[in-house]
Each structure stands twice: as C-alpha cells, then as structure tokens.
Design brief:
Layout lengths: L4 H11 L6 H12 L3 E8 L2 E9 L14 E7 L8 H13 L5 E7 L7 H7 L3 E2 L5 E2 L2 E2 L12 E8 L2
Parallel strand pairs: 3-4
Antiparallel strand pairs: 1-2, 2-3, 4-8, 5-8, 6-7, 6-8
Helix pairs in contact: 1-2
C-alpha cells in the first residue's frame, strides 16, 4: 500500500455506497510503516480493485493469545469480482503470512455481505477453529442473543505448509 492508495480505496468504497473508511485506511498505512501489518492492493486498469491486510499478530477472537498472523479486511470491490482478484490477493497474503508462521488465521462475518468471501475460504482450505460464533470479540454461548452485523463472525485457520 502506498500512501496515495488511501484516498483511492476510500473513493472505491464510496462508489459502492459504503463508508469511505479513511481513518481505518490511515491506521493500516501507519501499521504498515511500523511493520505490524502488511497491506496488499490489487489494481486493474490503474483502478483499485481490492485489497487485503496481514497483521503479524492476532488481536481478536480465539487465536488472540497466539503468535499467529491474521488475514484481515479482505475486500474486492463489486465491479471487479469474479475475475480471480480475490484469490490473487489471498495468495499474496498467505505468502507473507508464511514468513511468520506455518498457520494463518482469519475471522469472517456471517451475514450475506460476506457471502462472496465465505466459499473462497472454504475452497482454499480454511477450517473453523471449533469455538463457534463470536460477537463483539466475545464467544457467544448457546441461546445468547446477538445481532447479525459485522461483529458476528466465526474464526478459521489454515496450515500453510
């Protein structure tokens, strides 16, 4: 990620009708400068098509106490989907993660907005960790009430070697 990518990515989100996420993207760029996160940006015809980040250490969920890397914030913008960009981004992310560990982790939301990513993870060999559903970084007990939003997810991992 280059600093100028921040506004390009934010604009791509806005074109989709989403929040531009400028502050989050700024933080990612700073994390990259501090070598605690790596941000990979896909371009197609000089446009930003998507991006993915790799955090060197998990911050949330069942792997939080581990030293495992985590793939986070995987996005392929709608007009660029079904072109192999998502798999290319994940290839690069996994190639970076294997520099730190033989296992990589990720969390994926459960609502339909994550529907494009969920089968990609399954096809690439990511497996649920077995801890069940998480909401707002808390493991949800059977019968506990939660909301189906971006904070409702399951965690997956994959052996890289």
């Amino acid at each position: 990620m280059k600093k100028e990518d921040i506004s390009k990515i934010a604009n791509a989100f806005l074109k989709q009708g989403w929040d531009g996420r400028h502050e989050v993207l700024e933080r990612y760029w700073l994390d990259q400068q501090n070598k605690i996160r790596y941000v990979f940006v896909a371009e197609l015809d000089e446009d930003i098509a998507g991006y993915v980040t790799v955090a060197k250490k998990v911050k949330h969920g069942p792997f939080q106490e581990s030293e495992l890397p985590e793939i986070t914030d995987f996005n392929v913008f709608e007009q660029y989907r079904e072109k192999g960009i998502g798999n290319s981004l994940l290839d690069v992310a996994e190639n970076k993660a294997v520099q730190f560990s033989t296992i990589v982790t990720l969390g994926v939301g459960l609502h339909s907005g994550y529907g494009a990513a969920q089968p990609i993870y399954a096809k690439r060999g990511y497996l649920p960790d077995g801890s069940g559903v998480w909401f707002e970084n808390k493991n949800i007990d059977n019968g506990e009430v939660c909301m189906n939003n971006d904070d409702l997810c399951i965690y997956l991992s994959k052996k890289l070697r």
